[in-house]
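USER:
Try writing one entry.

ASSISTANT:
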Amino acid sequence: MISCNVYNLNREKVSEADLREDIFGVPVKKHVLHQVVLAQLAARRSGCASTKGRSSVKASGAKLWRQKGTGRARVGDAAAPIRKGGGVAFGPKQRKYNHRVSKKTRKVALRMALTDKVASGKLVIVKDFNEFLELKTKKFVELLKRFELSKALIVTHDKEDILEKSSRNVQDAKVVRHQGLNVYDILKYNVLMLEESVLKDIGEALS
């Protein structure tokens, strides 16, 4: 077991927490983390550019006029690309940028990201956030300064409305619930602050 200090919001040590070695003490492989982060970023792309081809345009499929005898150039249907309101020839189509990553790989990468934070001394565990009772950005900034945190990811067990709303205007901090914990955010932010009860949630999710 790996031991880690548990603090209250005044940065006073109140106890120690035991971290599971199969989650917080695994070998870190950069290529696995890279694969999962790329998949997360690719999934955020919308790929919304799209055009209608001649088969997608709502128009009559009938020939506009007869082939011969009119003195005019021969013509096809109204949806032809050369006509106004017709389909687009070889235009862009909506696509998905998703990279498939197995559930097992995502779990392994999450363990590695958590291990990296422990190994670099960038993991902070607090007892709970019940003492944070005032909805003020100033109070949230004071909390970060008290723990000497810069660019911090804060993970809570339950929904903490006051904490979440107080952090909205702080650019270098993000508050998420344990269900939203992911590899990209853990690596992006310098420090990971966990509520003590989140350790059990992580253990259940990664078992």
Remarks:
- The helical segments are 21-24, 30-43, 103-119, 137-146, 161-166, 183-188, 198-206.
- The first helix runs from residue 21 to 24.
- The longest strand covers residues 13-19.
